[in-house]
């Protein structure tokens, strides 16, 4: 793993760096953009009233990636809280403090960048983008955005306590949710569009059906339902000054990981100390209309967690060493099913490795995700009961966003100090990418004809 923070002023003028509030990587094909024979990715950063587009080029070995300025996008009149590329990478959505959401499209690129004087590089746009306003404004700042898997819809959250779903083609709001009693600080769209998730400062995690006519949520997750923690609140309240609570569905749609948790340190009744944590919920049971119960795992943290992002790739399970004792080896934590996991969440601790049980028995892959506090980034593997890596003290001020590259080998971390850190993994360092078996369709099977109705699946 290579961690680097290029000394490049990504936002600001002269010698003063402006904050970066959000970052996202364009989801190109897995190989990314090939440049000089190396991988490259286009990233967007949101700052004080402007977006900047960059090209990040991988440098093999131990060198930091090369970062090249591409364009400044100017239309917002306020700080930009969030930037998100559409699933196919053709549209960039951005939301600001004034409640405005804009949709940007790349129009053209400079044919011959070498024609630009060296002293002008970094100031002259190498790309042209056009923008459109997405429907009506929110009444307060936009806090998060999430695209539907097919790129036709955009979900927003706001400090006006509401969520909107926009039809991107019609630039209009098609559905709104207004059940939250305090700021809605994060959203995520299920990879197969079964539901959308929102989390707010009123200590509720809510799941909605994005396509039916109902505007009330199907599931409210607020307190532990059963077990030793029964009745206790799951999340931190609005007294905790967290501007972001960005949750994320796993790429297979089976798990939902939510930050800003607060749970008692022990199941013993006399232990009252509450610690910051992140929760893992099994949302796959929702497919059978079952109630989503307690979190299946609790990930303790040294400070409040605010950001979660899953790596887009699936990986094969790690194989234990030939001489390992399967139940005692602390580095290999196989998946098992615990029939009571819905009632008793597993408290994962860094000093007591154990086989945690995420109700994923029989699934031939594992998943990796990153969780951030204001100062740290922790990396988790669903085969293990504790972080496999932690990076700390990489920025002078708070971390603001996380974004994975589409090939799953780079995590970009933005900060309010105006810089970005790039966490790069060597090929196969995270493990072998899982390749699902090819499904052979018999020649006698007739596939259904395509329909004009909008698809709600990832495909």
From TrEMBL:
One annotated GO biological process: DNA repair
Repeat region (WD), residues: 73-106, 135-176
Classification via InterPro entries: Beta-prop_CAF1B_HIR1 (IPR055410), PTHR15271 (IPR045145), WD40/YVTN_repeat-like_dom_sf (IPR015943), WD40_repeat_dom_sf (IPR036322), WD40_rpt (IPR001680)
Keyword rRNA-binding tagged: no
UniProt GO cellular component terms: CAF-1 complex; nucleus
PROSITE patterns (alphabetical): WD_REPEATS_2, WD_REPEATS_REGION
SMART domains, alphabetized: WD40 (SM00320)
Domain CAF1B/HIR1 beta-propeller, first and last residues per copy: 1-430
Subcellular compartments: Nucleus
Domain of life: Eukaryota
Keyword terms of this UniProt record: Chromatin regulator, DNA damage, DNA repair, Nucleus, Repeat, WD repeat
Family: Belongs to the WD repeat HIR1 family.
Name used for this protein in its record: Chromatin assembly factor 1 subunit B
């Amino acid at each position: 793993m290579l961690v680097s923070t290029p000394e490049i002023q990504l936002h600001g003028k002269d010698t003063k760096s402006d904050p970066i509030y959000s970052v996202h990587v364009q989801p190109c094909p897995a190989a990314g953009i090939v440049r000089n024979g190396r991988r490259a990715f286009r990233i967007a950063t949101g700052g004080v009233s402007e977006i900047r587009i960059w090209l990040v080029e991988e440098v093999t070995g131990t060198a930091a990636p090369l970062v090249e300025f591409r364009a400044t996008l100017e239309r917002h009149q306020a700080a930009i809280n969030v930037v998100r590329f559409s699933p196919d990478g053709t549209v960039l959505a951005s939301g600001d403090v004034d409640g405005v959401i804009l949709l940007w499209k790349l129009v053209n690129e400079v044919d011959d960048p070498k024609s630009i004087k060296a002293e002008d590089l970094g100031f002259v746009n190498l790309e042209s983008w056009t923008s459109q306003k997405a429907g009506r404004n929110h009444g307060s700042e936009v806090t998060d955005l999430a695209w539907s898997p097919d790129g036709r819809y955009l979900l927003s959250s706001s400090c006006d306590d509401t969520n909107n779903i926009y039809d991107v083609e019609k630039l209009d709001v098609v559905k709104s949710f207004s059940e939250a009693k305090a700021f809605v600080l994060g959203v995520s769209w299920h990879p197969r569009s079964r539901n959308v998730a929102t989390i707010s400062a009123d200590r509720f995690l809510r799941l909605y059906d994005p396509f039916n006519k109902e505007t009330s949520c199907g599931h409210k997750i607020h307190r532990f339902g059963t077990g030793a923690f029964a009745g206790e609140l799951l999340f931190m309240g609005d007294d905790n000054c967290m501007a972001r609570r960005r949750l994320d569905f796993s790429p297979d749609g089976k798990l939902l990981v939510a930050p800003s948790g607060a749970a008692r340190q022990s199941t013993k009744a006399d232990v009252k100390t509450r610690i910051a944590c992140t929760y893992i919920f099994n949302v796959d049971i929702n497919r059978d209309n079952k109630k989503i119960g307690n979190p299946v795992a609790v990930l303790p943290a040294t400070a409040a967690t605010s950001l979660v992002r899953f790596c887009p790739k699936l990986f094969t399970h790690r194989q234990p060493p030939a001489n390992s004792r399967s139940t005692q080896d602390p580095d290999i934590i196989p998946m098992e099913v615990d029939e009571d996991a819905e009632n008793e969440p597993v408290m994962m601790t860094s000093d007591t490795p154990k086989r945690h049980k995420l109700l994923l028995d029989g699934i031939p892959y594992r998943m990796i995700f990153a969780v951030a506090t204001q100062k740290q980034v922790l990396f988790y593997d669903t085969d293990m009961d504790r972080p496999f890596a932690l990076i700390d003290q990489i920025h002078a001020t708070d971390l603001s966003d996380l974004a994975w590259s589409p090939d799953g080998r780079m995590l970009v971390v933005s900060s309010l100090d105006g810089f970005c850190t790039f966490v790069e993994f060597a090929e196969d360092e995270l493990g072998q990418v899982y390749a699902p078996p090819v499904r052979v369709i018999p020649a006698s099977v007739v596939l259904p004809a395509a329909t004009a109705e909008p698809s709600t699946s990832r495909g």
